[in-house]
Specification:
Blueprint lengths: L12 E4 L5 H12 L3 E4 L2 E4 L5 E6 L2 E11 L2 E9 L6 H15 L4 E7 L3 H9 L3 E6 L2 H8 L16 E7 L1
Parallel strand pairs: 6-7
Antiparallel strand pairs: 1-4, 2-3, 4-5, 5-6, 7-9, 8-9
Length: 168
C-alpha cells in the first residue's frame, strides 16, 4: 500500500478492471511489488489475474486494488494509490469492502509488513484492527519470492507479517 491518510476530496471514479487494463496492471504491480507475484501467509498469488478495482482520476488510471474472496472472507492482496492525499486509497478500500459485503463476506483482511508503518496507520484510520503478528513470516515468503528485500521502508528490517481485519 502506498499513500497518505491526510486526504482532500477529489473526484475518483472506480471500475472493475477490463482487458484493456492488463498491461498497465502488470506494469504497476511489477514496479510497486517487484513482480505480479504477491506472497501472503505462505501463499503466492498472481495478482494480475485476481479481481481488481481500478481508480480513475480525470482520464488517467491512478490506483489499483486486487483481492480474492474465499468463503465468507475477502483478502485484499494489493493496494496502490498513484496520487497521494486525494482519497484514492480510501475509495479503493471502500469499494473492495462493498464488493466483499455483496459477496456475503463477513471479514475483509490483509497482510502488510512490519516496516510499513504508513500502511498500518492508513488501515487503522479506516477501521481495520491488528489481529496477528506473524513473527519472521518473511523468511518463508522469501523462499517463495526471493526478491522480497531484507530491509524495507525507513531502513527497518522486514521480518514479520502484520494481519489486519475489518469485520463487515
Amino acid at each position: 500500500m502506498q499513500g497518505n491518510d491526510d486526504e482532500e476530496s477529489r473526484a475518483v471514479d472506480l471500475r472493475q478492471r477490463t482487458e484493456d487494463d492488463s498491461d498497465w496492471i502488470v506494469e504497476l504491480l511489477t514496479k510497486e511489488w517487484g513482480s505480479t507475484k504477491i506472497v501472503t501467509r505462505g501463499n503466492t498469488w498472481t495478482a494480475d489475474e485476481l479481481p481488481a478495482v481500478v481508480a480513475i482520476t480525470g482520464d488517467e488510471r491512478t490506483g489499483l486494488a486486487t483481492y480474492r474472496i474465499d468463503g465468507d472472507s475477502c483478502e485484499m492482496i494489493s493496494l496502490n494509490s498513484l496520487m497521494e492525499n486525494i482519497g484514492i486509497g480510501t475509495a479503493l478500500v471502500n469499494e473492495v469492502k462493498r464488493r466483499a459485503k455483496v459477496a456475503g463476506c463477513k471479514r475483509l483482511w490483509l497482510i502488510t509488513t512490519n516496516d510499513n508503518l504508513k500502511a498500518i496507520r492508513f488501515y487503522q484510520r479506516r477501521g481495520f484492527v491488528l489481529v496477528a503478528v506473524h513473527r519472521n513470516a518473511l523468511d518463508e515468503s522469501r523462499r517463495l519470492k526471493p526478491s522480497i528485500p531484507l530491509v524495507g521502508l525507513d531502513g527497518i528490517p522486514m521480518r514479520d507479517e502484520i494481519e489486519m481485519e475489518l469485520i463487515l
